[in-house]
From TrEMBL:
The keyword Membrane applies. It comes from bioreactor metagenome. The keyword Transmembrane applies. The lineage of its organism: unclassified sequences, metagenomes, ecological metagenomes. This is FecR protein domain-containing protein. PANTHER family: PERIPLASMIC SIGNAL SENSOR AND SIGMA FACTOR ACTIVATOR FECR-RELATED (PTHR30273), PROTEIN FECR (PTHR30273:SF2). The chain crosses the membrane at residues 53-73.
């Protein structure tokens, strides 16, 4: 027992010393990951001691591992989905500008996909692409995959529990190849639509940087882009609980919309859910939306940057856009409804008032 105390005392003193010299300015998510790892390390040592498996050398290695996690916050994947997502967060800045969808396996193998690929996981966690099995690795640290969908692309996946997941443009999702026996967790940055298989013994949890969504079996849409000041949850059927970063909880019913800003959930309201989920059918429904909001969505779908004045931004437009059409036809359709002109210059779309 004294040996364990000595090692943990050394860890705590090292952390305190580091904090005094380098005050932590990490966001709440990173702090949560740090303390999660510390608690896991303490629990691991307690269990090892109980089983009489603690050796001096392995204890020293564990301490070194904990200190590395503390100093860098994000290097070693563990069973907490936030920690896993953080550990593989480093992406090439051009990843979202690629023409192909990236499926990154736990063994660091990268597979390039197009929108029409059939991606499915069996209930034993095996990956099949177009009905052909793919080797994923067998180590514990290789049990998580990540899909990154660039601008202008979308893809559908079947997860190992039978849940269907649609991933929108400019999004990344981290998920286990096979879910834990007690919980089902994924991490989302961007937008997804989920049709979750009911399992009362294993709640399904979607974690983002700003909030969590807890469900049993339901269908809902999450929009949580890192470059948007506001995120949202739209419930199609079933029931979900949204927990924000202030620990506030919102219980949602079908056909409701909840906005989350700066980590805090706002007022829930009734909406036409079709507007928020039609993207998976390559459609965009616009209902008196501001033009700057429309252009932000078109940027993700087509990978083009839009330049416009405040007067253009404030214009409102309604209609339905077919996102399978080319951008030229989309802009022409919009110009019939609002008084704008458009031209492309150096890969940017310049929008002016007529």
């Amino acid at each position: 027992m004294s040996e364990l105390k000595q090692h943990m005392t050394k860890v705590v003193r090292t952390i305190i010393s580091h904090l005094k010299k380098n005050p932590v300015s990490a966001n709440p998510l990173r702090k949560e990951l740090l303390w999660y790892r510390i608690e896991k390390e303490i629990e691991l040592k307690r269990l090892k001691r109980k089983r009489k498996l603690i050796l001096c050398g392995s204890a020293a290695a564990s301490v070194a591992l904990l200190l590395a996690s503390f100093l860098f916050f994000n290097r070693v994947p563990d069973e907490n989905i936030l920690a896993v997502a953080e550990s593989i967060k480093e992406l090439d800045p051009n990843t979202f500008k690629r023409k192909e969808i990236l499926l990154q396996l736990g063994n660091n193998k990268e597979i390039m996909l197009n929108e029409n690929e059939q991606v499915e996981y069996t209930n034993s966690g095996k990956l099949a692409i177009n009905n052909t099995f793919v080797e994923q690795g067998e180590k514990e640290t290789e049990k998580y995959n990540q899909v990154v969908v660039p601008m202008g692309k979308r893809i559908q996946l079947l997860l190992s529990d039978g849940t269907k997941m649609w991933v929108n443009s400019g999004s990344r999702v981290v998920y286990p190849i096979i879910f834990d026996k007690k919980k089902r967790e994924i991490f989302v940055q961007g937008e997804v639509y989920l049709d979750v298989i009911e399992d009362k013994n294993r709640p399904f949890v979607v974690k983002t940087d700003q909030f969590d969504v807890n469900v049993l079996g339901t269908a809902f849409n999450i929009s949580a882009y890192s470059d948007n000041s506001q995120s949202s949850v739209v419930l199609v059927r079933g029931k979900v609980n949204v927990t924000d970063r202030t620990k506030g909880v919102v219980i949602m019913k079908p056909n409701q919309f909840t906005a989350i800003k700066d980590g805090k959930a706002g007022i829930t309201r009734e909406v036409d859910v079709e507007k928020y989920i039609c993207w998976k059918e390559n459609l965009m429904i616009i209902q008196d939306d501001r033009m700057d909001e429309v252009f932000a969505k078109l940027k993700r779908y087509y990978g083009k940057e839009f330049v416009f004045t405040d007067k253009v931004a404030e214009l409102q437009v309604s209609g339905k856009l077919d996102l399978k059409e080319n951008l030229e036809d989309i802009l022409k359709s919009i110009s019939f409804s609002v008084p704008i002109t458009y031209q492309e210059n150096a890969n940017k779309i310049i929008i002016d008032i007529k």
